[in-house]
Design goal:
Blueprint (H helix, E strand, L loop, with lengths): L9 H13 L2 H8 L3 H15 L4 E4 L2 E4 L1 H27 L5 E7 L1 H6 L1 H11 L3 E7 L13 E4 L8 E16 H7 L13 E3 L3 H8 L11 E4 L3 H9 L5 E4 H4 L5 E3 L7 E10 L6 H16 L2
Parallel strand pairs: 3-4, 3-5, 7-8
Antiparallel strand pairs: 1-2, 5-11, 6-9, 6-10, 6-11
Helix pairs in contact: 1-2, 1-3, 1-4, 2-3, 6-11
Organism: Thalassovita mangrovi
Keywords: DNA-binding, Transcription, Transcription regulation
Pfam families: HTH_1, LysR_substrate
């Protein structure tokens, strides 16, 4: 380091961290909403400040040098501290306005969230809502979202989670498909039917076999990691699919398969960060969603 008393520019440190995590200047620039030349200048400025070469180019990618690797853990700790400062500051806000990001599965985002948000628009018209429709578990600790709706309980100790609903799902197919392929009368009849998977046919087979459905990989000819796509495939007559009862029962042209089967029960969790839960606007949205989901409406 050229001058041990020199203060770091956080923008330069943040540019280094994003580049190290993303592996290229272009990806890091997109993450930080900067132009690539601006980000490149910030990384170069940090190298000048430290008197170290932090990256070397390998093909189209940037690879950390030994010095960069040694620095990375320290910079990550700085990034986490900065994130925590932002969380605390956001949590102290008492204004019912601004942007709130809610993450939920694509199916939930499309079919269930809008009903809850109608009431929110009436109660807090100055709030802006960004729905992050994703089937991945987003990291609330890094502010990818303020509130998450998920079917698994978050494990991070700094998150507040509330079980708001025990939802049910069953198997459905279109009337057109059942007219063509026949309506199964028992689980054994399913061996002659097509099933739609949600991105992993083996995982679905391994889940269905223990609950008495004798399907094999030969039953899965099509699927998607998107719940919306899977449901549309079923509506178009490609086969049988598992779906939330509340959504499925409100869709014309879809029939429940083997109605005597026990439903699949799954939890619905609402989660937010502890500091964010002290924010008036986050608390308003959290409580509204909790009330809406607990009533199952």
């Amino acid at each position: 380091m050229n001058d041990s008393s020199r203060q770091f520019d956080w923008n330069h440190v943040r540019a280094f961290l994003a580049t190290a995590e993303e592996g290229s200047l272009s990806a890091a620039a997109r993450k930080l909403h900067l132009t690539q030349p601006t980000l490149g200048r910030q990384v170069a400025a940090l190298e000048d400040e430290l008197g170290l070469m932090l990256f070397e180019r390998v093909g189209r990618s940037l690879v950390l040098t030994r010095a960069g690797t040694e620095l990375l853990d320290h910079v990550r700790a700085m990034g986490e501290a900065a994130d925590r400062v932002a969380l605390v500051a956001s949590g102290q806000s008492q204004s019912v306005e601004g942007l709130i990001r809610i993450t939920a599965s694509d199916v939930f985002s499309a079919f269930e969230l809008p009903q809850a948000l109608k009431r929110l628009r009436q109660d807090a018209p100055r709030l802006s809502i960004d729905i992050v429709a994703s089937n991945d578990i987003r990291d609330l600790m890094r502010r990818e979202a303020d509130i998450a709706i998920r079917n698994v309980r978050p494990e991070q100790p700094d998150l507040i989670a509330r079980l708001v609903q025990e939802a049910t799902a069953n198997f459905y197919a279109s009337t057109d498909y059942l007219n063509r392929m026949g309506r199964p009368q028992s689980p054994d009849d399913l061996v002659d039917h097509d099933f739609i998977h949600y991105g992993d046919a083996e995982a679905m087979r391994d889940y269905l076999n223990p609950i008495g459905l004798p399907v094999t990989l030969d039953n899965f000819h099509i699927g998607s990691n998107s719940g919306l796509v899977g449901w549309e495939l079923a509506r178009q007559g490609f086969g049988i699919v598992a779906m939330d009862d509340q959504l499925a029962q409100g869709t014309p042209g879809m029939e429940r398969v083997l109605p005597d089967l026990e439903p699949i029960v799954f939890p619905v969790w609402l989660a937010t960060h502890r500091e964010l839960h002290t924010s008036r606007r986050i608390r308003l949205v959290f409580d509204l969603l909790a009330d809406h989901l607990s009533r199952g409406t």
